[in-house]
Amino acid sequence: MTFLASVFVFGLLIVFHEFGHFIVAKMAGVRVLEFSVGMGPKLFGHQRGPTLYALRALPIGGFVRMAGMDPEENKEQEEGSLKDAGSFNNKSIFKRAAIIFAGSFMNFVLAILLFIYIYAIVGIPMFTNVIGDVLPDRPAAMAGIQPGDRVVAVDDRPVSNWAELIQEIHPRAGEEMRLMVDRQGMVQEFRVTPALDPERNVGQLGIVVDESAYHHEKQGFLESIRLGLMNTYMLTSLILESLYQMITGAAPAEVGGPVMIVSEIGKAAETGWSNLLMLAAILSVNLGIINLLPIPALDGSRLLFLAIEAIRGKPIDPAKENMIHLIGFAFLITLMILIAYRDVIRLMGGE
């Protein structure tokens, strides 16, 4: 299950990211030579026009290969009398930047779509108003409330789920309330006064939700869009804030690598489809942000080189730029191996 879930999540993230590069390149008139999902040997390929659509053996990445991105190819163009209109490097800085940025942009789009699907199709898991446990010597226990009771109303106000019940209890510390409780089909009334929790400054009865009693509550389509946009924005803000705190040393640099991500995907898959999609949305936003950082070999560094070109009025030597990306790629691979090693040690119970 972990393997299949990991292939699904990584495949989804990669396909959307690379499709962003691909579709904007096509719109900009760039000749796309290959659109591949995966790395390594080709398992399947289909040539359509100038583009080879391929599935490769290793599900660890993907790429879009465009005309004009090879330094040797650019040198041949310079030596020739005519410029290739379909070459990436012959397009304007704006078009090239749009092509590069589109990959990360599509990761944000994917996150929004996943959130919309979760809210509109799967639904939000909502705990019902059934009490799973009653803590001893707390107001609910002293009033005679028992595990398995279902609270149907508070002071004649109906409650249909646990969230509504908590909203009635928390602001009522020290204030007596009437609970209408369904116990095995018979409704009984209990008078109980929530005790103040000094740490959280809220009223509490000493009751615990029955985690096995829940249902999925679907949202309307427009509300799902609103929630999808809001969640993606909040998640982006949270990740950026966390990165800033790690860079400034305000928070420890807790970084999880591929091994840890696969482990979390496996756990999410075991708990349900909606949790797996939620994790995929979170990873998609992470990928979109990380890929825009100005680190060699990532899209962010390519955007930085384009900004330098715009300021200088001429591009940096493609061979030198590619060498920088190659060194950055080697560094990233080494870093990933080290992080993966640390992940394995942590999963095995080490420090």
Distance between the first and last residues' Cα = 27 Å
Helix content: 40-55%
Beta content comes to 15-25%
Q: What's the total number of strands?
A: 12
Q: How does the major sheet shape up?
A: 4 strands, antiparallel
What's the gyration radius in Å?
27 Å
- Tell me, briefly, the overall form: elongated
Reconstruct the topology from this structure.
Blueprint: H1 2-27, E1 32-48, E2 51-66, H2 71-79, H3 93-122, E3 124-127, E4 131-134, H4 139-143, E5 150-154, E6 157-158, H5 162-169, E7 177-183, E8 186-192, E9 195-197, E10 202-204, E11 207-209, E12 214-217, H6 221-248, H7 258-271, H8 273-290, H9 299-312, H10 318-347
Antiparallel strand pairs: 1-2, 3-12, 4-11, 5-6, 5-7, 7-8, 9-10
Helix pairs in contact: 1-3, 1-7, 1-8, 3-6, 3-8, 3-9, 6-8, 7-8
Please name the defining characteristics of this protein.
351 residues, alpha+beta, Pdz3 Domain, 2 domains, two-stranded antiparallel ribbon, 10 helices, 52% helix, elongated
Structure in words:
Pfam families: PDZ_6 (PF17820), Peptidase_M50 (PF02163). Residues 122-185 form the PDZ domain. This protein has 351 residues and is an alpha+beta fold. It has two domains: 2-123 and 220-347, no CATH class; 126-217, PDZ domain (Pdz3 Domain, Roll), CATH 2.30.42. The protein contains ten helices and twelve strands. The protein has helices at 2-27, 71-79, 93-122, 139-143, 162-169, 221-248, 258-271, 273-290, 299-312, 318-347, and strands at residues 32-48, 51-66, 124-127, 131-134, 150-154, 157-158, 177-183, 186-192, 195-197, 202-204, 207-209, 214-217. Helix 1 packs across helix 3 (93-122), helix 6 (221-248) crosses helix 8 (273-290) and helix 7 (258-271) packs antiparallel against helix 8. The protein is elongated and about 85 Å long. The mean pLDDT is 84.
